[in-house]
Amino acid sequence: MMSRLRRSMLAMPGSNARALEKGKTLAADVLMFELEDGVAESAKDAAREQVVAAVRGGGYGAREIVVRVNVFDSPWYAADIAAVAAAGPDAIVIPKANSREDILRAARDIAAAGAPAHTALYAMIETPRALFDIEKIASAAAEAPLAAMVLGPNDIAKSTRARLTPGRPALLSWLSSAVLAARLHDVDIIDGIYNDFNDAEGLRREAEQGRDLGMDGKMLIHPSQIAVVNEVFAPSPAEIAFARRIVEIFDAPENAAVGVAQVDGRMVERLHLDGARRTLALAGAAD
Ligand SMILES: CC(C)(COP(=O)(O)OP(=O)(O)OC[C@H]1O[C@@H](n2cnc3c(N)ncnc32)[C@H](O)[C@@H]1OP(=O)(O)O)[C@@H](O)C(=O)NCCC(=O)NCCSC(=O)C[C@H](O)C(=O)O
Ligand SMILES: [Mg+2]
């Protein structure tokens, strides 16, 4: 089953009123209003107020609105949760989530703060503990409204000393583990940011790599990154045509007993049908 379209997730500091307003016009699938590392300590309270007003004010159309709060043991977590959960965004993003218990705690906290039923959770995966225990973190989806996990390459690099070099060889095994955990527990997995927002070609290569590894989308930091990533994570015309043929073949009543067929010289089996339907749903949702 396909969840929401999450090709592009644009972060914007909650302290930046201009960015919060601009988000209403941008083609990102998800907008993340940031209260954690992207906001200076002196601006935390004002940013929280501004973000809550933006969530309550609406005007963002079909975009998914998520808010990243500060970490559990920070001086701002309790006030963030109280104010943000009550405003009812589509999701609250928990930075530096380390365990299944962290997700369950966040779920309890947002419920106690009066979050509406539609408010889900995202977990940022950005510490060595989270990279080791990612399957346990994803397993919290059975008991908590965990909708997605998001990689945080800057914190991963900081905490592991791995380098963010082209092709991300140091991160590859962790990226793949993240995809496995997400698929096992039916949550979305969103690839991390590409810091050099003036390098469109580098961004495209990294987005294609994430897509080919199985990611559902990519987190972004600048509006200039949206179009490239939306294109990379949307099915191509050739993929859509191929998917249509698969559905036509296996949906045809006369082929009810057919398990294997050929399309354009390639073998397809009935097991490809789900993937083909997902491709068509993605294409429809991206229109
Ligand atoms: C990186 C930036 C600070 C650059 O900002 P700026 O210098 O203002 O860029 P431009 O002059 O090119 O901006 C052009 C116009 O676009 C608007 N803008 C810029 N960025 C955004 C944005 N993210 N969302 C919405 N609108 C944006 C500017 O206001 C200009 O508008 P206008 O004046 O009308 O023309 C900035 O891009 C930025 O702050 N980016 C996001 C930073 C952030 O949120 N960081 C936290 C998340 S990153 C993360 O999670 C890392 C993770 O945790 C990890 O560990 O890896
Ligand atoms: Mg981080």
UniProtKB/TrEMBL annotation:
InterPro entries attached to this UniProt entry: Aldolase/citrate-lyase_domain, Citrate_lyase_beta/mcl1/mcl2, Pyrv/PenolPyrv_kinase-like_dom, Pyrv_kinase-like_dom_sf
Domain (HpcH/HpaI aldolase/citrate lyase) ranges: 7-223
This protein's record includes keyword Lyase: yes
UniProt-listed Gene3D superfamilies: Phosphoenolpyruvate-binding domains
GO biological process: oxaloacetate metabolic process
One Pfam family this sequence matches: HpcH_HpaI
Amino-acid positions noted as binding substrate in the UniProt annotation, renumbered to this chain: 68, 126
GO molecular function ontology, one term from the record: lyase activity
Keyword tRNA-binding attached: no
Keywords (A to Z) from UniProt: Lyase, Magnesium, Metal-binding
SUPFAM superfamilies, per the entry: Phosphoenolpyruvate/pyruvate domain
Residues holding Mg(2+): 126, 155
Cofactor entry: Mg(2+)
Similarity-based family: Belongs to the HpcH/HpaI aldolase family.
The protein, known as: CoA ester lyase
